[in-house]
Design goal:
Distance between the termini: 44 Å
Shape: elongated
Number of helices: 17
CATH topology of the largest domain: Rossmann fold
Strand content: 5-15%
Number of strands: 15
Number of domains: 3
Strand order of the largest sheet: 4-3-9-10
CATH class of the largest domain: Alpha Beta
CATH architecture of the largest domain: 3-Layer(aba) Sandwich
Length: 501
RNA sequence: GGUCUCGUGGCCGAGUGGCUAGGCUGAGCUCUGCAAAAGCUCCUACAGCGGUUCGAAUCCGCUCGAGACCUCCA
């Protein structure tokens, strides 16, 4: 029996608004598409929360034995600065501001994005397609939508006809919008508009003479609209219908709504079975975003160089911080919360280290209830993760397991009372959920080995001093190490371990 | 204005009808030459007011407060 059969996953589907049992289209396989970053600027911390969420989801599916194809795009063209202007796009604008080629901008911020992802231990997707790499496909689907009568061309631009689409399908099913209300109550556009209706959206935009990102098309030189790239790339790599589409909550409308309309319009069927939206990171209760100016960069977070930060925090502490809340809730950022998270993470991390150093001596006095309670903790980890990827609850179980690991070390829970099979299952679960599922890896400096050896010498001296009952010297060794950030810990058996603060 | 979400103990945060998550902080105990670490214990909450129910943080209504989307945003 496969793990995914043993622990079936249920998830919150934004489309139905309910928690549903996950059933893949092809048994044993998961196809997942997530809207990636627009690479015209550095990713900020809020962005990374979304990518962390889907990192966890793809990790857990794989952990359960699914074969996962995870596609996350790079948007390197096409975001309109304003929907009603003459097609200023963010990449192009940034290029002019910095006197760079558009692809230089794209390259620079793509590198930044990847570097941040690596620091947070967010695994790369299976495929990371770019919008500019799929111009041909975007033109093709636009032609198809024109042929189907779901789009129209005006002055070299092509727009999706939402009203027309709504006649045979339903526009607004994801976001719960009512098309009549959208038409009536939406904001008025300042300038004259080529669109028949303000809710129509661009599939292809004509490039003004000064526009630097442009491609030839049947309608003249231009560039693709924002929404169409995701439809094209998800369809190409995952099929006309696939299992999961994810992204930040703020993309629900209009972006994902438009994707549904385009995909359904072009292919005659709804593209996605399960929509998953991760919620926003907030600062003092307000959404973190570039436009509000309350965002900060991961690099500022690590170094503590942002004015809002009391000090720097390590990537794993931040990762842990985010995993303590559920992805569907907003998460408020604060120094206090991060400091608490850092301590919590260290506790779990040091238990992992402790666990690695334990070795089972063989079962000599089996204790069925101890074995049973350990096994139940293992089961609970799976149960909580399978319940809508509840990382917060899973962490709670891991803390319980960490306490048991410390008991094993101290002798409160003798290893000899545990069946070897049970102990291994427990150890594999703790390690697996920490490292593979939650991606909480150990953070250690590169000089750790050298330092370990050096401190080993000092520990030897302290042992000798203690054996001689020369406590003045043994305390001096400990206190002076403490003052430079090295904490010595005496064990019951006379062994001394150390940790860096 | 329209649509929607949320309001949990000192702090952060799970939880959706009964079985009082967890982390951090604070207090105490055990262990220790003294510490640290670790283990254990305690501080037990659900914005307010009504209602449904044998029973509500959890369902319904109202009030107050905060926020999101409706324009680019993860």
């Amino acid at each position: 029996m496969k793990l995914y059969e043993q622990y079936p996953v249920s998830l919150s589907n934004s489309l139905s608004g309910k928690k549903e049992l996950f059933k893949p289209i092809i048994p044993g396989f998961v196809g997942m598409y997530v809207c990636g970053p627009t690479v015209y600027n550095n990713v900020h911390l809020g962005n990374t929360r979304t990518f962390l969420t889907f990192d966890i989801i793809s990790r857990y599916f794989r952990f359960l034995g699914y074969k996962v194809r995870y596609v996350r795009n790079i948007t390197d063209v096409g975001h309109l600065e304003n929907d009603d202007d003459q097609g200023e796009d963010k990449i192009g604008k940034k290029a002019r501001l910095e006197q760079l080629e558009p692809m230089e901008v794209v390259k620079k911020y793509t590198e930044d994005f990847h570097s941040v992802m690596r620091q947070f231990n967010i695994l790369p997707p299976s495929i990371e397609p770019t919008a500019t790499g799929h111009i041909v496909e975007q033109i093709e689907i636009t032609k198809k939508l024109l042929d189907l009568g779901l789009a129209y061309e005006v002055n070299g631009s092509v727009y999706f006809d939402v009203k027309k689409y709504h006649q045979s399908h339903s526009y607004g099913i994801l976001s719960g919008r009512n098309i009549e209300e959208l038409i009536e109550s939406g904001r008025d556009l300042d300038s004259q508009d080529e669109k028949r209706d303000k809710i129509d959206f661009a599939l292809w935009k004509k490039a003004s003479p000064s526009h630097i990102m442009r491609w030839p098309s049947p309608w003249g030189d231009g560039f693709p609209g924002w929404h169409i790239e995701c439809t094209v790339m998800s369809t190409k790599y995952l099929g006309e219908q696939f299992d999961i589409h994810g992204g930040g909550m703020d993309l629900k409308f209009p972006h994902h709504e438009c994707e549904i309309a385009q995909g359904t319009g072009a292919n005659g069927k709804a593209p996605v079975h399960y929509w998953i939206h991760s919620n926003m990171l907030t600062v003092n209760g307000q959404k973190m975003s570039k436009s509000l100016g309350n965002s900060f960069l991961p690099s500022e977070l690590f170094s503590g160089s942002h004015p809002m930060l009391q000090r720097g925090y390590t990537p794993m502490a931040v990762r842990f911080f985010m995993l303590q809340s559920h992805y569907s809730s907003t998460l408020d950022f604060s120094n206090e919360a991060l400091q608490a998270a850092e301590k919590g993470y260290k506790k779990l991390s040091s238990a992992l280290k402790t666990l690695r150093e334990l070795s089972h001596p063989g079962t000599s006095m089996p204790d069925p209830s101890a074995n049973e309670s350990l096994e139940s903790l293992v089961q609970t980890c799976y149960k909580e993760m399978s319940d809508d990827f509840n990382t917060a609850k899973t962490l709670a179980v891991l803390f319980e397991m960490a306490s048991r690991i410390n008991d094993m070390k101290s002798g409160n829970l003798p290893l000899s009372s545990l069946e070897v099979e049970n102990f291994n299952s427990f150890a594999n679960a703790y390690t697996g959920f920490m490292e593979n599922v939650l991606g909480l890896k150990e953070e250690s400096g590169s000089d750790e080995k050298l330092l370990d050896g050096t401190i080993g010498v000092l520990i030897g001296l302290r042992k000798k001093a203690r054996a001689d009952r020369n406590f003045a010297l043994s305390d001096k060794i400990r206190d002076e190490l403490k003052s430079i950030g090295i904490q010595l810990k005496d064990g019951k058996d006379g062994e001394i371990t150390w940790s860096a603060e």
